[in-house]
Amino acid sequence: MKQLQMFMRQHPWSWSFLAAFLTWAVTAAYISGTGGLALASTALSFSTFFVMVGIGQMFVITLGPGNVDLSIPSTITLSAVVSMMVMDGTNAMILPGILSAVVVGVLVGLFNYGLIRVLTIPPIIATMSSSFLVQSSAIALGRGVKIKPPAALEWISTAKMIGVPVLSLLVIAFAIVMAILLNRTVYGRSVTAFGQNTRAARLAGVPLERISYLTYTQSTVLEAEIGEILN
Amino acid sequence: MTGLGFFASARFWRGALPALSLTFVLLGVFWLQPRAMSYFGLNLLFNLAVPIALATIAQMFVIAVNDLDLSIGSFVSLVACIGATWLNETPLLGIAALLGCIAVYAAIGALIYIRQLPSIVVTLGMSFVWSGCAVLLLPTPGGSAPDWIRSLVTLKPPYIPMPLVAAAMLALGVHFALMRTSWGVLMRGVGGNEKAITRAGWSVLRLKMTMYALTAVFGILAGLTLVGLATSADANIALRYTLLSIAGVILGGGEFVGGRISPVGAVLGAMTLTLTASFLSFLRISPDWQIGAQGAVLIIVLALRAIVNRLEARK
Q: A81 pLDDT band (50/70/90 cuts)?
């Protein structure tokens, strides 16, 4: 019991896992056990989007107090609209479509970074303002666009492997890669150093400008990818 | 600094920026639509700015103590729903519910301070609670505002339209209370230097609870004004107020940390944001771009402020 307590204190995330499990157990009990597995599978595939958004947001928040990205939902919409227009419903155009979503993500990230660093606007206001602009562009572009996603892309987002959605497996792999990126690479350590003590990080020679630019861009690129899958 | 020197100083320009932005947008509206330059026109233009200005002031109280309220939009919606149902049918129950809301807000302030929780997370959680209550109370849009509120918001004072009178009273009243009294200094001090306030023997807990309670009071005023203007309510009526109110505070010269706020600026900021939407519809720009334009206005004003700050730093 003592050990368990220690573990939970040292690993704050274990509370979230506990909460997720309890919520699932209560819901499964409520529907009297039938379809408990189906429930878990549905929850898995729906949560993939949140996991990806969450990881992007986490990197931004790691940059320190006050850093937050509010432009997530609108960037998702815009990149989805753009890539759907590029793909035009054909399998052959999937790669250019994905690339176009990445370009949208890079551009929005660059814009956010410019507002925050060059104009010294607080991140929450900067990303909110840019999200307004991005949202409007998405609405204006997407007016009347109703293209079905290419068959291959649709297959990936609904396929299952031994009952587990393929998408979830991909996202788990992605989360592991991102964890290694944050904890084991120079870039990841720089992001953490930036957030913990900006002045010390600067003295230690961490290229702050580049790191914060990369992080904001990375967040929006991730969002762009989500737009891709959400279709 | 004497005489004309003050007018060239960065401090003057920073203070004047909110007023200048509002004047600029207002002139734009008058130029496009001269008929707006009348008692009736101004009334229409600024009608919906009053609840937004009240919500902005509510948000400002929280920002003054270095916190952020992400639940103000759903709270104002809930108040509007209470106003259109209980307050109309069983006034006593309605008043009790509103008082209860103030108590809950004060309790949230206490919780955030005692447990040192991030206000963003706690208020984000509360926003779901408020929204849930609003949906339970009023599942479909409807209800009707009490007559006394409706007659209050449609008052027609001579010469100056009601929304302008209300905005001026709000701005000056809060400015006096927060910037000109010793009580206001204490309140802003919590955001400026919490330790100093504690050392001087004041209870930061009590001050924070007061600030959160004041947020609730102004949120309630916003909700009741809104339901008075709209005559009926909906559980999602004011969700966008959360972001609008934060933007209004910042546009008006406030800052996220350090207890630096400006009540007059916040009211002007809220009015500028409201007016931008009308300006664009007068320009006949497609409604698709209206939200985008609000973002553009924010960026332009904040860019101007960055320039002023940089000029000051160079001196």
A: confident
pLDDT one-digit tens code per residue, B139-168 = 989 888 888 888 888 888 888 888 889 999
Give the residue from A72, A132, A134, A135 with the most B CB atoms within 10 Å of its CB, the best one to mutate: A132
Residues in chain A: 231
Q: How many Cα atoms within 13 Å fall on the side-chain side of residue A149? A: 20
- The answer to whether A206 and A190 have CB atoms below 8 angstroms apart is yes
Distance CA B102, CA B55 (A): 14
Single pTM value for the model: 0.82
Distance from C-alpha of B93 to C-alpha of A67, rounded to nearest angstrom: 42
CA distance A112 to B204: 36
The verdict on a CB contact (< 8 Å) between A137 and B246 is no
The amino acid present at A191, given as its one-letter code, is: V
A61/A175 Cα distance (integer angstroms) = 17
A139: closest chain B residue by CA: B288
At B123-143, the pLDDT tens digits run 999 999 999 999 999 998 988
Q: Report d(CA B14, CA B306) in Å as an integer.
A: 9
> Which residues does residue A165 pair with via DSSP β-bridges, in sequence order?
A160
> Could you tell me the pLDDT band of residue A16, with boundaries at 50, 70 and 90?
confident
State whether A135 and B256 contact (CB < 8 Å): no
Q: Does residue A155 carry a pLDDT above 90?
A: no
